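By convention, each integer encodes one residue's backbone shape. The lines below illustrate.
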Amino acid sequence: MPWEIAQANFFELTTILDRAEIDWFLVRSVQVKRLVVAVDQEDKYSLALALASSEGSADCYIVGATNPRLVAVLSKQVVALRAYLAESVWTFGARYEDSKSGAMLGLDYGCDIEFWDYSEMHSSGLVTAPRENVAARILSVNELLPATTEVAGRTVPSRSVFHRRMLDDIVFPIDAVYTWVDGEDPDWVDSKRRTEAEITGIAYHGEANHVARFRSRDELKYSLRSLEMYAPWFRHIYIVTAGQIPEWLNTDHPKVKLIDHHHIYPDSSYLPTFNSNSIISRLHHIEGLSEHYVYINDDVFFGRPLAKDRFFLPSGIAKVSPSRNRRPFGAPTALDEPHLNLTRNMRALLEEEFSVTISRAIKHTPHPQLRSVHFEMEAKFADAYERTWSSRFRHHQDIVADQLHHYYAQIVGKAVPTNLRYNYINILDDQYRGTMESTLRLRHRDTFCINDAPVDGAVPIPEDEVNNFLTNYFPVKSTFEK
């Protein structure tokens, strides 16, 4: 995993520094991908010698910050390193290749070396870093008293200023919640058909019970890979199922918590349910769930490293992702698409309660949620919640709580809009093939969604292309897998 590689590069570098008896400390950086160490700029040439003579760095490289194309192979090539002596920041690391998948990671996950200027320390008491960190670029010696911190369970040197709580630090725990179903499980299919046979006289839109809604391509496995690669900071990962367990899932993983539907509904009269709107509207009843959590559909993936502050403000306010698309007005009917009816039903609740209407849709991204807001909405809109919970299949009178939270929390000042960069890819329409290909090639989106929404007359993207996309984007097995 990328963060493990970043840590390995950090420990490789600091071992070299320790052997050369060069003082260093860990910087609390604004970097998302890499760890950063500080070294006195007077020790730059000594470090170059140590790197060039270190047997352990035979397959390692450095790159200068101002000229990223200037790459030198280490191991007894001190002459090549002279070109770097004018640089104030180096990136050190090995190229990593996964033995099973062949995936290659370069210096994006290296370790940065900042050369700090101590020349004014005795006259002014100030030390200057080559770039900003979470504290400041210019610091006094009184703020740089020796301290320690931990990296991967190891104690490493730090400085006192980096142990202060900063205004933009997020210190509360954040959980992830997934809903998942194995639509090919014979017992689940039998239960679904028997329940359908018991329900008559209720009109449903064809898409509401479309087979694609229950199809699995192991999206959850790849979504968890993306989470571990790019957002490893989640405390717990709750997976809510109808008693099903993915055969590849490592259920002994300390972060993973499997939640049966029976654990979140008040009694069995609501079960079995095949209504995702109902299930999502009960997630806040997960025992032990943190106040701040992110609901993630299993067809949503993290596309590049993301920090906690992309989803919450340090004050605890959620950061939600409105779409540019607008939802039509009118009354909900069984003839309309389910997502349009959801918006209409939620619009009616909010207009009646706040005299505020909604029109913008919501991006298919991870959805930051506040548990207390969900209990507040459940109490305020009890009839709408009860009606949704009681619908065993998706119904045109449903609401869905993750989307209601998006709007409600903004109205009551518990959420603000943000702008995650994302791609939506409908694999049942081959017009999205180019979007899928560019998403893989450029890896330029914070998140993306692989959806399967039926489109009349559209040609689906072949299954093997979708599977190849997922395996190529996330080739490395996560610790959540057996």
User: Anything to note?
Assistant: The longest strand covers residues 35-40.
